[in-house]
Design a protein that fits this description.
By secondary structure, the chain is an alpha+beta fold. It is built from 14 helices and 7 strands. The two termini are 30 Å apart.
Length: 347
């Protein structure tokens, strides 16, 4: 499970003068008061909801509720706890509004990636590499997928306790339940999550970076055998919002050889980026002029020198969140330049 260390390093000291001014109706003071908390709250909403768009909406709603309710904040608990209570409650409402029980991994129609450039804002300046690694682990796509398969209150209990380091009493108070009930939610969520996520992740190493480079090169050469050699035999390909998944190396390479651009992978330009603390690739499809239009994002899971999972998101609307252009020149003599990447993403 995730440790408490990273969350303990994220405590934010609030300015009493800003709080006083904000409670008196100064909106600028309110904005300044919330600013140090917003990225962490956004990541929390993303963990709860699994969707970047839904996290945006939930955070906006939570900020509005916080502004309206600030005069009622009595300061008995840290402002951070009060804000997480509002954000968590807002997310639980979103989950209930979806009107569905937890879905299998292959049916998470709302699943979206989280750009590393936004995640880096949360861990920027953290002097502890281990703490930064824990923060990335807490948004790993496999972890997010596993969270979405938990009942909503179990999901909230696990995030509050194991990611955000809330105490049993704080968690129970936030969820409006007893300590015993909150502990029961936590125990059940831990058991399910351990079975779903398996082994813990590790930082990308030189071998992983080489795997990503070889994948891009094989793709641009339309080298199906080369792509197959990079996939684990039981690899999985998912493409939310499409239901279902492709399982097995042979099935996936058959898909690559026939479906994207009718198998003309050499026409699809891949640009490296980062999502969920993992290597990711932005795909551009050719149009009728001398451009490639943004098509979608692929997030890769790598273990033991092979790609184990590819999660594709065919949604060009995600590109601005990744600071990626929606179109690129495809003139053959002018290869596509990689997008600017955070330091931990493969070069």
């Amino acid at each position: 499970m995730l440790s408490y260390r990273a969350a303990n390093l994220m405590r934010v000291h609030d300015d009493p003068a800003l709080l006083t001014a904000a409670r008196a109706g100064d909106h600028d003071a309110f904005v300044a008061l919330l600013a140090p908390h917003l990225r962490a709250l956004h990541v929390h909403c993303y963990r709860m909801l699994g969707s970047l768009d839904d996290a945006d909406d939930a955070l906006q709603e939570a900020q509005l509720l916080a502004w309206r309710g600030l005069k009622g904040y009595e300061g008995r608990a840290p402002l951070r706890h009060w804000l997480y209570r509002i954000a968590t409650t807002t997310c639980l409402k979103v989950i209930r509004a979806r009107g569905r029980t937890p879905l299998p991994a292959g049916e998470l129609f709302y699943l979206q990636p989280y750009p590393d450039r936004l995640l880096d804002q949360l861990i920027a300046g953290d002097p502890d590499p281990a703490a930064a690694a824990e923060q990335r682990d807490s948004v790993a796509l496999a972890f997010i997928v596993a969270l979405q398969q938990l009942p909503a209150t179990q999901r909230a209990a696990l995030l509050l306790r194991d990611v955000l380091a809330f105490t049993p009493a704080e968690t129970a108070e936030l969820l409006d339940t007893s300590i015993a009930a909150a502990n029961s939610l936590l125990q059940r969520s831990r058991a399910t999550l351990t079975a779903a996520t398996g082994r813990s992740r590790r930082p990308l190493d030189a071998t992983d970076r080489q795997i990503v480079r070889r994948f891009v090169e094989a793709w641009h050469r339309r080298d199906i055998a080369g792509l197959a050699a990079l996939l684990r035999e039981d690899a999985i390909l998912r493409m939310p919002p499409e239901p279902g998944e492709f399982t097995g190396r042979d099935v996936i390479v058959e898909f690559f050889a026939t479906v994207p651009a009718e198998g003309r992978l050499d026409l699809i330009r891949l640009v490296e980026t980062g999502a969920n603390g993992q290597p990711a690739l932005a795909a551009y499809l050719p149009d009728d002029v001398d451009l490639c239009q943004g098509y979608g994002i692929m997030v890769l899971d790598i273990a033991d020198g092979l790609i184990t999972t590819i999660t594709g998101f065919p949604n060009a609307a995600l590109f601005p969140a990744f600071a990626l252009p929606t179109d690129r020149c495809r003139t053959p003599e002018t290869p596509l330049a990689p997008a600017r990447r955070p330091p931990h993403v493969p070069a």
